[in-house]
Amino acid sequence: MKKLITICALILITALCSFTTHFFSWASLASNQHISLNNLKDAVDNGVFNLKNAIPAGTKLITKNDAVYYVYLNESYSPYAGKASNQHVTKSDLQANTTYTLHVYGVPGVGCQDAVLWLVANTTVPCDASLQFDWCADNGSTGTHTLTIPSGQTSVSLNVNTGDYGGTGCVGTDVRIKPNSLSFSNTCSPDPHTWRVTSDTWDNGCNYSLPASTQVICVKGCPI
């Protein structure tokens, strides 16, 4: 009898653990199953989605409106787009937003030729993506420019005669970007994406006695 009770207890514990995992875990959901608040929170905790607003704990099933309120989604994804705002969504209805990374930098001119400013995306952009920024060069020149990568493209460049921007002589080996000056915009509508900007030459003070810094700056659709 004791052995039977022990076996039954183990079966019950296993079933309960499985149920609990399923009840909270995003990974355990089948593609056609509805999503609870706990499921969505677990998905965020495990990097499936980027958080937009804090998700309360609970077993309540979420609607289309709930989902886009709590996390960043690809709102043009057809299974999601086809749902009514008050309909419950399943796991297969949701697709995470795409992260686009724009790399901005300047290439100094050789032999007193123009410097070249570049904005390069990690993949083709889904709409026109514009970045305004201040730059400086080690001949004392400074300027402000806006570069726009056209929809479906990956890069754009602009030749700049640094002598036209207060510099003395030819630009040397250092063109730097001021991270505090960034202003980003795009023509995506809706825009469920995350947009980040990187550079190997960040320097707000244009202090050429020190190395430039490298960092990733999120400019739109940023995770909380």
Give keywords:
alpha+beta, 19% helix, 224 residues, five-stranded mixed sheet, three-stranded antiparallel sheet
Could you characterize the architecture of this molecule?
The chain is of the alpha+beta class and 224 residues long. 19% of the residues lie in helices and 30% in strands. It has helices at 2-24, 37-45, 64-70, 78-81; strands spanning 99-107, 115-121, 129-137, 142-149, 155-160, 175-186, 194-202, 213-220. The chain has a five-stranded mixed beta sheet with strand order 5-2-1-7-8, with no helix packed on it. A three-stranded antiparallel beta sheet has the order 4-3-6, with no helix packed on it. The longest helix has 23 residues, at 2-24. It is elongated, with a radius of gyration of 25 Å. It starts with a helix and ends with a strand.
Helical coverage, percent range: 10-25%
Which H/E pattern describes the elements?
HHHHEEEEEEEE
Spans of at least 5 consecutive residues with low confidence: 6-22
Biggest sheet architecture: 5 strands, mixed
Shape: elongated
First and last CA, distance? 55 Å
Beta percentage is 25-35%
The total count of helices amounts to: 4
The total beta strand count reads: 8
The strand order across the widest sheet is 5-2-1-7-8
Going by helix content, strand content and strand pairing, the class is alpha+beta
The average pLDDT value, as a whole number, equals 85
The radius of gyration computed from the alpha-carbon positions, rounded to a whole number of angstroms, is 25 Å
